[in-house]
């Protein structure tokens, strides 16, 4: 019996030294907000942290300062109700692993804005203002109501990837060279004052970018013409045979 225990301990030591036993990678934490990254003044939103963690709680941080403990029994959610301008910020989730050697694990940062109705609504324009064919160039222009602002552009209502745009005064432009069909869609923008981060304007009205692939259209028309011609040949052949 003693020999078996000795062999077991020796086997564990060899396994550790040979790297068979390795520390599992730290679980990843994700952070999300519903319904949108931009909350209207007085509106509601829910921030959610998710992690396959051994711990039963996570820490929600705002601007890298701990804000609230989130417990699994409460679905790791933090509700923003009747939002005011101070609710905007840079949010993240974090937790400490149980092991002594564990290091702090953080989620990605999530920027949340509060829309102030006092800010003029920006406008968005396309140049040229027409349907485009694949390979043409287009410029998307956003115009705000004040100076020294930063614009954010998004497509098809998806704010998952907000694209910040460098501005000159109260205007910014995005130049798309050689557009493809994937560039087509509904574009909108909003802006924030650099002096008031996380407070923003309402979004602009959507602007539709239409990209046409004439190659596919020509192939379809050619195929349709061939089918029609083949159908006429069959009709004539049948008429001649019957005659």
TrEMBL record:
Segments crossing the lipid bilayer: 219-241
Keywords: Disulfide bond, Immunoglobulin domain, Membrane, Signal, Transmembrane, Transmembrane helix
Coiled-coil spans in chain: none
The organism's place on the tree of life at top rank: Eukaryota
GO-annotated biological processes: immune response-regulating signaling pathway
Residue span, Ig-like domain: 27-94, 122-189
Gene3D superfamilies on file: Immunoglobulins (2.60.40.10)
Family annotation (InterPro entries): Ig-like_dom, Ig-like_dom_sf, Ig-like_fold, Ig-like_Receptors_ImmuneReg, Ig_sub, Ig_sub2
PANTHER family (UniProt xref): MHC CLASS I NK CELL RECEPTOR, OSTEOCLAST-ASSOCIATED IMMUNOGLOBULIN-LIKE RECEPTOR
The protein, known as: Leukocyte immunoglobulin-like receptor subfamily A member 2 isoform X1
Native species: Alligator sinensis
Lineage, opening ranks: Eukaryota, Metazoa, Chordata, Craniata, Vertebrata
């Amino acid at each position: 019996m003693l020999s078996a225990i000795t062999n077991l301990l020796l086997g564990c030591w060899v396994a550790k030294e040979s790297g068979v036993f390795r520390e599992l990678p730290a679980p990843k934490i994700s952070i999300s907000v519903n319904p949108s990254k931009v909350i209207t003044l007085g509106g509601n939103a829910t921030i959610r942290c998710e992690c396959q963690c051994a711990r039963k709680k996570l820490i929600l941080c705002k601007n890298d300062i701990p804000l609230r403990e989130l417990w699994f029994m409460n679905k790791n959610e933090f509700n923003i109700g009747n939002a005011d301008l101070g609710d905007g910020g840079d949010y993240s989730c974090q937790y400490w692993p149980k092991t002594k050697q564990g290091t702090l694990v953080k989620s990605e940062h999530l920027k949340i804005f509060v829309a102030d109705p006092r800010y003029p609504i920006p406008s968005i324009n396309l140049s040229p203002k027409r349907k485009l064919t694949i390979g043409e160039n287009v410029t998307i222009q956003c115009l705000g109501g004040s100076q020294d602002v930063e614009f954010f552009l998004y497509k098809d209502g998806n704010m998952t990837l907000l694209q910040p745009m460098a501005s000159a005064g109260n205007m910014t432009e995005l130049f798309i060279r050689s557009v493809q069909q994937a560039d087509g869609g509904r574009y909108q923008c909003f802006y924030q004052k650099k002096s008031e981060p996380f407070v923003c304007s309402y979004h602009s009205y959507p602007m539709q970018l239409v990209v046409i692939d004439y190659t596919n259209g020509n192939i379809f028309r050619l195929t349709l013409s061939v089918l029609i011609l083949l159908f006429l040949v069959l009709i004539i052949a049948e008429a001649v045979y019957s005659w």
